[in-house]
Amino acid sequence: MAYYRRAGHLPPKRHTQHRRPDGGLYYEELMGEEGFSSDSSLLYHHFIPSAITEAAPWDLPDQELRANHPLLPRHFKTQDLFDENTAKAADTVTGRRLLLGNDDVRLSYSAAAQPSPLYRNATGDECVYVESGEATVETVFGTLTARQGDYVLLPRTTTHRWVPTGNGVLRTYIIEANSHIAPPRRYLSKYGQLLEHAPFCERDLHGPEELLLESGTDVEVLVKHRGPQGCVTGTRYVYSHHPFDVVGWDGCLYPHTFNIADFEPITGRIHQPPPAHQVFEGAGFVICNFVPRKVDYHPQAIPMPYYHSNVDSDEVMFYAGGDYEARKGSGIGQGSVSLHPGGHAHGPQPGAYERSVGTEFFDELAVMVDTFRPLRLGEAAAAGEAEGYAWSWAAGEAS
Ligand SMILES: [Fe+2]
């Protein structure tokens, strides 16, 4: 994200001496993408950022995936994945449960009330959508405040931890890429500024508010990283000093938040296709969101989407709020996830198409991930699957 930001104390010239009050040198770290050829930031550490004293395997939550076979549209209820006691004891990193995944992206859900361990994801960027609750996300760049509706974007290898705040449980829908997550290329100028036709701009992005300095020795950090044969695996490091020791940083790569309420919907006289709702993209997938909006105003418009066979994609919707008219009668509600795989034409539930004629406003809130390679089913998909969704169109049609 080419949007420069700086915090704390920096030397006037990069790669030059930056001295502590006692005369010693701070240690400069470049955190950069694509082999020094893309966005980066420079961070100045009190201690050497490489100083580990132990490494041991970290067993990730169940990462097994099985094929969606026979090929079915499916409905998963994240509402059923965590009871209250489980959520109160869980954290947003080790407690996440894998719904769907492929070699490009993994989709998980978490309900948690405990602070997470220090963690970084070295397989790719994370985009964490906050369904409800609030948290402070403590990072090596400083603190972020996360609230309902926020996408929290954490660049690959950002050391951080989730600390739920307030009284409630923090519910999050987690999109883990094996690549980087950024605004669509078509929203950006050739130098990376968000363009006038983009549905959001730099003012809507919120970086770390203040630096975070912590002291301590022998500090654990959990690292998710690439394993053999394309697998994801984990390692637990012990650092000799606390990694939150940055006295200053600057650059264009840092964690930030974007609230879904700041997405300005693009509407038209006739139906706008999902790319009009796109917010981010990664390698092999896109992220779109459907927000409350005025709908199609052609006098003969059908505001409800047409049935569509998006032949190259699997489509996953996370229903985050509002009243999702297209799915009425299917059992889908707040917190549900639907999977509409390539090879099956999908669209509104019976009756919704007709009811939409004359409608002027949709009160809906959903986050959609479309993948270009087939998704497989994780353990949370099996645990949370609602029976009968695949047959709901035929069932409604017959009644
Ligand atoms: Fe669709």
Kindly name the structural category. mainly beta
Q: What is the number of beta strands?
A: 27
Envelope shape: globular
- Number of individual domains: 2
User: CATH superfamily of the largest domain, please?
Assistant: Jelly Rolls
User: What is the CA-based Rg, rounded?
Assistant: 22 Å
CATH class of the largest domain: Mainly Beta
Enumerate the strands of the largest sheet in spatial order, edge to edge or round the barrel: 15-19-12-9-14-7-6-27
Average pLDDT score:
95
Distance between the termini: 51 Å
Uncertain parts: none
Sketch the major β-sheet.
8 strands, antiparallel
Strand content range: 35-45%
For this structure, the CATH topology of the largest domain is Jelly Rolls
Q: Which ligands occur here? A: fe (ii) ion
| Count of runs of 4 or more consecutive helical residues | 4
CATH architecture of the largest domain: Sandwich
Helix content: under 10%
Give a structural overview.
- The protein has 399 residues and is mainly beta.
- It has two domains: 51-244 and 251-259, Jelly Rolls, CATH 2.60.120.10; 263-382, Jelly Rolls (Sandwich).
- The protein is built from four helices and 27 strands.
- The chain has helices at 84-89, 352-355, 379-384, 392-398, and strands spanning 5-8, 27-32, 40-45, 52-57, 74-77, 97-101, 105-112, 119-121, 126-132, 134-139, 142-146, 150-154, 160-165, 170-177, 205-206, 217-226, 232-241, 246-251, 256-259, 278-282, 285-290, 293-294, 314-322, 336-340, 361-362, 364-371, 376-377.
- Fe (ii) ion binds next to loops.
